[in-house]
Amino acid sequence: MEAEQRREQRREAVSETAQAEAAGKGWWEACAADNMHTVSSVAEFKQHMKQARSQNKLIVTKYFAPWCHACRSLYPKLQQLARQNSEVLFIKVNAGEPELHKLCEQLGVDRLPYFHFYKGEEGLVSQFAANLTPSKLAKLRAEIARHKEPALASLGRTVSGELQGALSALKRSASTDLLDAMGSLSRQASGDLQAA
User: Fold this and answer.
1) Out of 7-11, 47-51, 106-110, 113-117, which region has the weakest mean confidence (pLDDT)?
2) Residues belonging to the active site
3) Which among 40, 50, 47, 18 is positioned nearest to 31, based on CA atoms?
4) Count of C-beta atoms within a 10 Å radius of residue 172
5) CA distance 164 to 175
6) Domain Thioredoxin spans what residues (predicted)?
7) 13-39 pLDDT, tens per residue?
8) What is the mean pLDDT of residues 159-165?
9) Helix count (H) and strand count (E) of the chain?
10) CA-CA distance, 152 to 154, in Å (whole number)?
11) 103/114 Cα distance (integer angstroms)
């Protein structure tokens, strides 16, 4: 079932791309996912980064160029991933635009398609070049899963760890109290035997 659902999502993404091109838009402008944005300036890039950082969101940044065949081939998969990971912000940076090309150079993007993963205050947590090979797609999915951890899950681990610590302290305290009580009873019994 899951494989069929993924195939259907991919067909939809390919169709959206074809519709965008038929309407005179670039293939990279097709996407119905609310969490996927194409930035048109460095200022817009910084604005998305600042907003996502303040919300501790994972940002997946794809660097592409309109002429890049691998970028275009990978795009329907990226659309699919955006739909499947609505809590993640996907940003597309067109390295074919002069202003954004300079940004790519400053960020060390030396081939396309290229991905950066940013997470809250941690900043850049992963980066790599990708294409449609199964191993690269698996890495893309794995990195998203690894870094998209919601804040509540992290909080849950923190609270769970604190509760474990409190429980351990309580057990140590109870064990100490029990040993003290046993020692007191033993001394009392020993005193009773000596008195008899």
Assistant:
1) 7-11
2) 68, 71
3) 18
4) 10
5) 16
6) 7-149
7) 666 666 655 666 788 888 768 999 999
8) 61
9) 6, 5
10) 5
11) 13
